[in-house]
Design a protein that fits this description.
The structure is a homodimer.
Chain A: H1 4-17, E1 22-26, H2 46-52, E2 60-64, E3 70-73, H3 79-85, H4 91-97, E4 102-104, H5 109-119, E5 122-123, H6 130-140, H7 153-164, H8 168-191, H9 198-211, E6 215-216, E7 221-223, E8 243-248, E9 250-251, E10 260-265, H10 272-290, H11 298-315, H12 323-329, H13 356-359, E11 387-390, E12 393-395, H14 398-406, H15 416-420, E13 427-429, E14 432-436, E15 441-443, H16 452-460
Parallel strand pairs in A: 1-5, 3-4
Antiparallel strand pairs in A: 1-2, 2-3, 6-9, 7-8, 8-10, 11-14, 12-13, 14-15
Helix pairs in contact in A: 1-7, 8-9, 8-16, 10-11, 11-12
The structure holds manganese (II) ion (MN) (2 copies).
One manganese (II) ion binds near residues 259, 342 and 431 of chain A.
Chain lengths: ~450, ~450
């Protein structure tokens, strides 16, 4: 946990930002894999961590913005439980560290809310866990299918406003996460040799994250089929000439995330064709970074990266025509189907559970519904203290190429005959994490191998 | 997947064992850690795997025992999804391999059940996932808090009867799981050196399980505080003289579990006191194994192990009095608070979600409510094909010793003055996995280091 005043300050600001009513923060619970007691590793809710810091399941925080009351509902371990689980720190002691003196038994929560809801608004965030949906349905007497619809927009907006601007103590944790993430990627480069299985590398990345006392921040992508964007299959064996795409990150013991991607030549040498595409992605990556500063719309960095990708693909004969027109028409989305990046913090896609319309967009800048832009999680103006990822890529997806080609889609910008010869290429992505500073940006952590030469050198060690 | 006829046979037997009505098998879904799309590794429901073998989320199997109809409700990937996830095997193809030709869109399930329930009983197993509870509540128009109470006992009993007797193809998978589990324990012994962190070993065990293409079968226990029975804290650094207790297992790619425990001296040498307690546990372990055969009640193996522990503790001066009287009074439970073992299969505690009263006991042999015996998951007569664990242990739990001593509990059997000097000892457990054969038992996998000498040798390599 951070020091007590951090949590007190955060809650104080939040209470001020909400007009009135009761704020309810359910902590997460343990979740069973194949039976109730065989649990996945516990992951606390990030908003609960942000305001209370207590990394324990099955408790609920309540803030009364009208009276200033702050309560944690939860139960101490019984003597029986201590026999099985050891003498752990008491809940009261943890609450003390969070600056909360009022700790009440869990069973008092339902009657408390029953009474409160007669006179006060009850605010809660949209639950992403089904047990919490059931709880809210029962506590608030709501049909289960209305629970998420009735989540509090003022509460969401106030949380987003606070969590978006990272404090210095958070940046320290985020740098730690990126440091471990760097180690993971350097190890992947070392292991990217013919005969090695994707599963071995994925397992080693998880080992590094866990040995540091944390976890993975998301399921690792470790694949020679980098064109499959959500690819968690690790069943292939690497061979000379393959490209290995690794998108992976660590989560620190305090649950701050790192998220990086590197693409590497198995065995240590990019082919000419791989090198060319790699350098287009690298160039777009650098273009995107250069404009990072407060006041810049992330949407505009995305479009600048798209233009750089288009220029590069024109040079290679894959695209043609006017770059700005091509980007405006979305022609680059045949190769770059997704977004340039996203916020990062306690969640790898920070606050994704609160809704992209609040986290990445504003009332006046709404997310596009077009292919490509609809996958851009962040569009709005950057502010000092935002932590974001930059992750352009080029992906040759055979099914998508076939579909577009059959429809002669945007053929004024795409040389389909050339593209056809790249259908076995795979995909390349490069991703780093940044914090927005007063005048620009700062890379989180050290820079690790990023150019053709540097990556080849790491693989060949 | 196993060959098609395996699943067809299993479903045929099940249908025959149920009098009438519709059997509903909801597959598991992906579960979000900190937001919906940041998921834990997918774990299919074991009963679904047993009867259908399809390792894919968000589908539902339905068997009509009246008409013989077999249906899978689920949706094929859209072209959009293929772009993000690659061209995966179709659901229809997987269903074909499971011997099911009738595949219908997911949205047809609710109306199907709506209609069926007018004339037929709808059988389902007690759900341990909250999303499935919500589904059943909506499908069957049941209040959420009644869903588990209305689970079908005939369905539970029929599934338990089948899954309890392991087929030869299952034993092959279980031996694979134990082989990987063996590798994990040998690696832990190698790593049990001063200065190593518990977290490093735990991370390495997970790496081994994952690199084999599987997962851990349960969260590993890797602790120098082995007396804490449910201890998943990995924050300590090992030092010379510590005992390290490792209880861990692998799950194969087909989701069969291994589950073993070893206790090892950090640095390679047991102290005299550690050696003495280790040998008492070892002796009880061997005593328990020797009586394994069809017709033997597992409860009686548990009591035989308890008697062997008591004899050993008497020799060391920790207990006194008549052994049988001590065991009958539960005096050994000051040191051995839990059960001798459990069934193992697709779940590490096989079928725990179906209820111990059905899996481990019978209508005539009910589970005891006494301390100690209430933690024995399996009591009934063994049958050929049962796969079980044997895991006696001795645990010095300071809080429990204080509690019993203050109450002078069973002081005719316990030398509290001597016990007092062991409060810093920790705990020792030894666990192996067996299948019951025609006349006795067979150890699954190779036997790895198990005696004082053999364990010391592995640690000292
Ligand atoms: Mn990312
Ligand atoms: Mn066990």
């Amino acid at each position: 946990m951070f020091q007590t005043s951090i949590y007190q300050n955060r809650r104080g600001i939040l209470s001020k930002n909400i007009q009135d009513g009761i704020l309810v923060f359910p902590a997460n619970r343990e979740l069973g894999m194949n039976f109730a007691d065989n649990v996945y590793h516990f992951r606390q809710d990030s908003t609960f961590l942000y305001y209370f810091g207590i990394d324990q399941p099955d408790i609920v925080g309540v803030l009364d913005t009208d009276t200033g009351e702050e309560i944690i509902f939860g139960d101490e371990l019984s003597i029986d439980a201590i026999i099985w689980m050891g003498a752990l720190e008491t809940l009261a002691s943890k609450c003390e560290k969070a600056g909360i003196k009022d700790v009440r038994p869990k069973k008092e929560l339902a009657p408390f809310l029953e009474k409160a809801k007669r006179n006060q608004a009850i605010h809660y965030l949209p639950p992403y866990r089904h047990d919490i949906q059931i709880d809210l349905s029962l506590w608030l007497d709501l049909p289960i299918n209305l629970v998420n619809k009735k989540a509090s927009i003022p509460f969401i907006k106030a949380v987003v406003a606070q969590r978006s601007i990272k404090e210095e103590v958070e940046l320290v944790e985020l740098r730690k996460a990126v440091d471990i993430t760097n180690q993971m990627h350097l190890k992947a480069m070392e292991m990217a040799q013919p005969g090695v299985e994707e599963a071995e590398i994925a397992a080693e990345l998880q080992r590094i994250a866990q040995a540091s006392g944390g976890q993975l921040s998301f399921p690792s992508i470790v694949t020679k089929n980098g064109e499959i964007l959500h690819n968690h299959y690790h069943g292939n064996t690497l061979k000379e000439g393959d490209l290995l795409l690794v998108d992976a990150g660590a989560e620190t013991a305090m649950h701050y995330a790192g998220d990086m991607s590197r693409t590497m030549p198995v065995g240590g040498k990019f082919s000419q064709r791989q090198k060319e595409i790699f350098e287009v992605v690298y160039g777009a990556h650098q273009t995107a970074i250069e404009g990072l500063r407060p006041g810049e719309r992330f949407l505009d960095r995305h479009l600048a990266a798209a233009a750089a990708l288009t220029d590069g693909l024109k040079d290679l004969g894959l695209m043609k025509g006017d770059t700005q027109e091509a980007v405006a028409a979305g022609a680059h989305t045949l190769f770059f189907q997704c977004g340039l990046g996203h916020m990062m913090g306690l969640d790898v896609h920070d606050m994704e559970n609160l809704g992209e319309e609040y986290v990445g967009y504003t009332d006046t800048l709404q997310k596009s519904k077009e292919f490509g832009l609809k996958s851009l999680r962040l569009g709005k103006e950057l502010e000092k203290g935002y932590v974001i990822t930059i992750e352009p890529g080029i992906y040759f997806i055979p099914q998508l190429i076939d579909q577009w080609k059959a429809n002669k889609h945007l053929e004024q910008f795409i040389n389909y005959d050339v593209v056809e010869t790249y259908k076995d290429f795979g995909g390349i992505r490069q991703e780093e994490d940044f914090v927005i500073t007063d005048n620009g940006y700062e890379l989180l952590g050290e820079e690790i191998a990023k150019t053709v030469e540097a990556v080849e050198k790491e693989v060949s060690r």
